[in-house]
Design brief:
It is globular, with a radius of gyration of 19 Å. It contains nine helices and no strands. With about 190 residues, it is mainly alpha-helical. α4 packs antiparallel against α5. About 75% of the residues lie in helices and about 0% in strands.
């Protein structure tokens, strides 16, 4: 399909062949830009992705500072998880580059908070058993890989790519619900 600007759409097979060639040269990550579904140009999608990456520089420090000064790490994990889902809900509701940059910034500031906070809480809980952290962390990684594979398989065989925002929203809601369901754990951490 044709796309905006001087760039040209390419057949699926050409893109797959180039991805395999890049993988053969050691490239480990490839971001494919689909302008046909978003209406954004490559430069605009690059800007949106840069904003999301930029929030990884600010968010953990901001939320870490809040956790250090409030002694409410688990409550902040719950709050940031809920706010991630709520802010991501806006992705399909507004259009235009300005709105998308704002929504991406807000989502990124909330989304990049729970994991570092949870890791700090886990390490604090383990105290002298910190050597067990790697066993706990590996299960988080396995869960992430399983979720990515399941979503990829569902998008390939059952769902349309247009369902991806709704699917991500449901995953964020699930994350929030899991954090909220851990009241007994919260009580143990925040004595």
């Amino acid at each position: 399909p044709a796309i905006r600007g001087p760039l040209q759409g390419r057949p699926h097979g050409d893109v797959v062949a180039e991805a395999r060639q890049l993988a053969g040269h050691g490239v480990r990550e490839l971001v494919l830009v689909s302008q046909a579904t978003t209406g954004y140009g490559a430069d605009q999608i690059g800007l949106i992705m840069a904003v999301l990456a930029g929030t990884k520089l600010v968010s953990p420090n901001l939320w870490g500072w809040l956790a250090d000064h409030s002694d409410r790490s688990v409550r902040l994990i719950q709050l940031s998880s809920c706010l991630t889902a709520l802010s991501f809900y806006l992705v399909d509701r507004y259009s235009g580059l300005g709105w998308m940059l704002l929504i991406t910034s807000v989502v990124g500031l909330f989304w990049n908070a729970p994991l570092p906070l949870f890791e700090a809480v886990t390490l604090g809980y383990l105290h002298s058993d910190a050597h067990r952290y790697s066993r706990i962390r590996v299960w988080g990684s396995i869960g992430f890989v399983a979720a990515v594979l399941a979503v990829g398989a569902a998008l390939k065989s059952v769902l349309l790519i247009q369902c991806l925002p709704q699917l991500v929203f449901l995953l964020f809601v699930a994350m929030a619900l899991v954090t909220l369901s851990r009241e007994s754990v919260r009580a143990q951490f925040e004595r």
